[in-house]
Amino acid sequence: MNNLRIFSGTANTLLADSICKKLGISQGEILIKRFADQEIFVQIKESVRGQDVFVIQSICRPGTDRLVELLIIIDALKRASADRITAVIPYMGFARQDRKDQPRVAITAKLIANLLTTAGADRILTMDLHSAQIQGFFDIPVDHLTAVTLFREYILKQKLDNPAIVSPDVGGVVRARQVLEGMTNSELVIIDKRRPSRNRAEVMNVIGEVKGKNLVIIDDIIDTADTLTKAAKALVEKGALSVYACATHGVFSDKAFENINNSDIIKVIVTDTIPLQENASKKIEILSVAELFANTIKRIHLGESVGELFNNK
Q1: Do 258 and 306 have their domain in common?
Q2: Which residue out of 100, 193, 213, 283 is catalytically annotated?
Q3: Is-contact 310 148, C-beta < 8 A?
Q4: Plot region of 139 (φ>0 → left; ψ -120 to 50 → alpha; else → beta)
Q5: pTM over 0.90
Q6: Does the active-site annotation cover 193?
Q7: Closest C-alpha to 258, from 219, 215, 229, 287
Q8: What pLDDT, in 10s, does the model give residues 188-232?
Q9: For the segment 25-81, what is each residue's pLDDT rounded down to a tens digit?
Q10: CATH code for the domain of 259
Q11: How do residues 105-115 score in pLDDT, each as one tens digit?
Q12: Which of 127, 129, 209, 312 has the least CB density, counted as fewest CB within 10 Å?
């Protein structure tokens, strides 16, 4: 693995450090600074000619800034004659803008795919896209990881009595069923809801038996936590003993922490694809995805199957 190099943008340096430690290598030396007018300047401070390079950068708040920074890093590496450039994007911002659901709106996720490819990325490594079909927006290989195994292991360790897995909407049923694999004593519950506007949801029906059960809601993103906390309230009103929540990406915008603190949720479990803010709710617990990304990077570098990683699990 002598020709493996890992560089990090400024979005999630702690995760990048953890991934490098798991691989037993040091981060590549890179200079990233902003001029007085906030223009981004990038310089690769070591030779990458003929190297297999991975760039770690979540497209999280502020998303546009993180995206442009990633594009500039990729361009710098391309012009420095890197042999292959893999954009490692633990959280793919803009992924919720994946279709034209209103007149005269952009399909921004497709635009991001085009920008990354044009900048010079040869491959994408990401986790729990809002819609798995976004992989088809790219004309380059995409390795799509998932945190469901981490969540399943966490839930089993809690040894909850009479547990059930909850999908917060019909679109999340596949993800919820993946968590259920191997949990023989658990059932699936589905919440039927509608969205009168963005970041707002109304629970219409709860499909499945929740009375007397300890429930775990499984989702990909927690943003304002409005939808999540309303779902938890509806489940408690239906007789649930307790409600936990697991989500891959903790965006936590607007009044998210206030909503969580005032909710019926016992604990919220998220991964470190996005750095947790300092004023975070004490109900939040972090699971690291560093080992999963490190193992995947190693397999890609060595030309081994990424799918086998999950088969072994």
Answers
A1: no
A2: 193
A3: no
A4: alpha
A5: yes
A6: yes
A7: 229
A8: 999 987 665 665 666 668 899 999 999 999 999 999 999 899 899
A9: 999 999 999 999 999 999 999 999 999 999 999 999 999 999 999 999 999 999 999
A10: 3.40.50.2020
A11: 999 999 999 99
A12: 312
